[in-house]
Sequence to fold (184 residues):
Amino acid sequence: MVVKMIETPRLILRQWRDSDYPCFAEMGTNPQVMQYFPNLLSRAESDALIDRMKLIIETKGWGFWAVELKQNQQFIGFVGLHDQPIQFSFSPCVEIGWRLDQAYWGQGYASEAANAALDFAFEQLQLNKVVSFTTLENEKSQAVMKKLKMRKITEFQHLALASDHPLSRHVLYEISRKEFHNQG
Fold:
């Protein structure tokens, strides 16, 4: 499978490298980066997550790509697409997601990379729609979804979390191919 690399004006979305592992592991121990996830990640958990993301990209040619700055090749996190065939009531679907290191928040990198990933989803994969979801409290991620012109569809209970877990309530956004192409 040919692994797709995507370039934007400031970023490169690419396959994971060995040099990304320690940086990503550091992100996984940052309470601000992991605020809307059930727990911080150990080094082993972080490495295993990269291994899974890397294998998906090797198999499909796309997935949650590592993101680096063009200007200095600095790894800043991941952005990309993930197939969700059965997990949710709105499955099968492809989600778009992101996780950036805190030092790179608020600079438009997530939306720049996500726009490129959406273009790939609609042009290369010929998907009809892409979804995104996060906890109700994660206003920063929801702001990115809105910047991408995604529409809020519903709220739902994330089945991987107990119903009384503080992060269990999620919000679902989506964008169709037509909506993406009609942005002006």
The chain has a mean pLDDT of 95.
